[in-house]
Amino acid sequence: xxxxxxxxxxxxxxxxxxxxxxxxxxxxxxxxxxxxxxxxxxxxxxxxxxxxxxxxxxxxxxxxxxxxxxxxxxxxxxxxxxxxxxxxxxxxxxxxxxxxxxxxxxxxxxxxxxxxxxxxxxxxxxxxxxxxxxxxxxxxxxxxxxxxxxxxxxxxxxxxxxxxxxxxxxxxxxxxxxxxxxxxxxxxxxxxxxxxxxxxxxxxxxxxxxxxxxxxxxxxxxxxxxxxxxxxxxxxxxxxxxxxxxxxxxxxxxxxxxxxxxxxxxxx
Length: 268
Prior knowledge:
Elements: H1 2-16, H2 21-33, E1 36-39, H3 41-50, E2 58-66, H4 70-83, E3 88-91, H5 98-106, E4 110-115, H6 117-125, H7 135-153, E5 159-162, H8 166-171, H9 181-186, E6 191-192, H10 196-200, E7 204-208, E8 215-216, H11 221-226, E9 230-235, H12 244-267
Parallel strand pairs: 1-2, 2-3, 2-9, 3-4, 4-5, 5-6, 7-9
Antiparallel strand pairs: 7-8
């Protein structure tokens, strides 16, 4: 019964629900009214690494994981620009869109790579458990994709954040599994959104989710009103209103990848 309820809510959110983009603007306005400075992941990392966090300042770190729906992502950029707030947009290989990138850079926002090489390799190779994971293959793919993105878009991408999906849950490891400090330095990566040093400096982390809950673990305005010093909010476009075409493409790709993974595990 709970599974059926989840499927219904997910279907409603992805294909039927109305646009909630105004709620995003209202959320940021609430934070600003409570004295928060909205900053990017890069901005915050700069404060952490330099010891420059002001104990009398409240910070809201805005992070956007653009898994899909580039059109809605561009609207988030517009609102951030309108309110003159900073944020970071992490793009997957399939959401590196020239128009979106131009909007992000024109608004002087932060751009990063939402990587998923481990889960891609797992699906293609049929890895069934963590012992199957080929770290060298994951690193080879990561370097290849990073080089391609840097060359194709002429951007010095040095900020990353792992994406997660069903293959990671099946293996029990995140896409960060193949990273270490030495490899990141060699790859020219300055910031990993999930690095312990960065995460430990954050007092509260809130992610959006589909209605009726909307946020996990709770509405971030609770933190604004209580004055929590450092709050990070994770935003995904698909949780802020349905998009028939974009979400149909995303869900179809997930089904295809799931079938491919199942078959490859059997063949392996």
